[in-house]
Amino acid sequence: AKPFSTGILKAKVAVFTEINKESTDSGPANEENMQVEAKAQHAAEEAAAARGEAKAAKERAATMEQELSKVQKELEQARAAEATAEEKAAECSAAMEDKVSEIQKELEQARAAEAAAEEMATECSAAME
């Protein structure tokens, strides 16, 4: 049992109250004992309330820690997804650059072929004249 358990504290107060009742008759001393008993009972109730508040605060802290852990996991997942997206975007960009380069080469070859064809046509035309 906890040393400050409400039940133990109440039992001690009850025992001391009973002892005081037996050792004193009545009158001012008895009234004084009643005041002490009331103060002790009030202190026990305040201690119990404080323990309850502490327990509730501890539970709230545990809940907050769980929520923080969950949010941190979500943040890590979001960062990983962002890194993956950036990597895929870089791959896509590189692939597009390769494709553009390939198309530019094909265009240059087509222009060269066109120029050669025009030159040949000019030469043929000149030869026929």
UniProtKB/TrEMBL annotation:
Basic and acidic residues composition-biased segments: 52-67
Stretch list, region Disordered: 21-67
Top-level taxon of origin: Eukaryota
Full protein name: Uncharacterized protein
